[in-house]
Amino acid sequence: MTPSRHEIGIVGGGLAGASAALAFARAGFDTVHIAAPHRHDGRSTALIGPSVRFLETLGIIRALEGRAQPMFAMRLVDDTGRLLRAAPVEFRAAEIDLPYFGLNVLNRDLLDTVTEESETIATRLVRVEEPVVSVDLDDERAVVRTESGRTISVRLLVGSDGRHSVVREAMGVPVWTWSYPQVALVLNFRHQRDHEGISTEFHTPTGPFTQVPLPGRRSSLVWVETPDEAMRLKALPVEQLSREVERRLHSILGAVEVEEPIQSFPLSGASVSRLSGRRCALVGEAAHVFPPIGAQGLNLGIRDVEALLASALENRDEPGGAAMLAAYEARRRTDVATRTAAVDLLNRSLLTGFLPVQAARALGLGALASVPVLRHALMREGVEPGSALAGIASRVRSLLPGQRASG
Ligand SMILES: Cc1cc2nc3c(=O)[nH]c(=O)nc-3n(C[C@H](O)[C@H](O)[C@H](O)COP(=O)(O)OP(=O)(O)OC[C@H]3O[C@@H](n4cnc5c(N)ncnc54)[C@H](O)[C@@H]3O)c2cc1C
């Protein structure tokens, strides 16, 4: 059978793949999106800074109207019960002149919205709803074969096919994987009191317990526990689990009513030594996996998509060529490597019983509570990756004799 030919092929129908397909087609590329049906997902994503802006350019934020909850403040509470404990810290977006830190939205609502927007540009975006079973890469084109035997030839193949990516396997890039002795329970719940757009993260000895506000008197919860405890909690009758959630929240939102289903995700990490190969590039969890701390995973995936599109537009005549792929690597390598290391370190610092590490964490949070330059730098880094160092450097320069502050 003669292969169908397109400029861009996107493999994977999760949030990274769906956003990439919409973005490339909107930018005028002849795009094919090859996606096996995506599994129902009850999780939510806190979209921050650059991700919100990028999705705004695609019309997604406007279309989400009423289904995305702005996060005005974030609270960190040391609930480890350990000898060295940090005081609670609260960050307010208004402190750094932002209307909000981010928007929390259910993954299902986000994916439906991206899919609906994609249907409006069907002429440039062909959908093939079946899995890819093989990938062949050479210097000119990437050719994929789908389950039904269809072949598709493209100039740039985007691997957004998640942690077991077939595109990554065809690239032959080494993958480092690791796991944590933790499982994340994920659920949504209704509550008696208003959340006022505040997200509260309790640091416990087994991992974070994070409430993130949804529209109305409703929040999502990511609750990291040991595998045994997670299984015990998941098996509890829902009324009992609701009481347990209220107890762990120290009743800050009043009585709690947990909604089913309750999902669980064993925590793991993965990292690759390069993000591109002949005629292909990786985005989202095909390229990086880490624990759900600090709302990083999909935000990083959306920044991958934005950088890949920018690199393709700069090399409009040769998408998937060596110059375009080198530009993509250069744009993404540092961000991906630093986020992976930072999230890993933070997660391990919670797990450790080693006193000096506990002391360092307690002191670190204490400094954040009381040193404005650090607080503001951290808040900016959270919403604008890469800005904190630049901000501190500019502040230091402004304090040197003969220098003036820049912004
Ligand atoms: C508990 C939890 C909470 C999280 N909270 C946040 C948060 O608040 N903020 C944030 O930014 N991130 C968060 N994350 C991370 C975020 O959910 C992931 O980064 C994101 O969902 C990954 O999307 P993806 O599209 O890269 O991969 P996936 O969602 O895994 O999608 C991959 C898709 O590829 C398809 N596929 C696989 N193989 C093939 C094939 N051969 N052919 C065709 N299709 C294929 C699959 O069916 C799937 O649909 C969280 C993660 C967890 C576990």
Shape label: globular
CATH topology of the largest domain: FAD/NAD(P)-binding domain
Going by CATH, the homologous superfamily of the largest domain would be: FAD/NAD(P)-binding domain
CATH architecture assignment of the largest domain:
3-Layer(bba) Sandwich
Count of DSSP E strands? Answer: 20
Fraction of residues in helices?
A: 25-40%
How many structural domains can be distinguished in the coordinates? 3
Regarding CATH, which class of the largest domain?
A: Alpha Beta
Going by helix content, strand content and strand pairing, the class is: alpha+beta
Question: What small-molecule ligands were found?
Answer: flavin-adenine dinucleotide
First-residue to last-residue Cα separation: 60 Å
DSSP summary: helix tally: 12
Rg, alpha carbons: 22 Å
- The residue-averaged pLDDT reads 88
User: Would you identify the regions where 5 or more consecutive residues have pLDDT less than 50?
Assistant: 399-407
Main sheet, how many strands, which sense, barrel?
9 strands, mixed
Beta-strand content bin: 25-35%
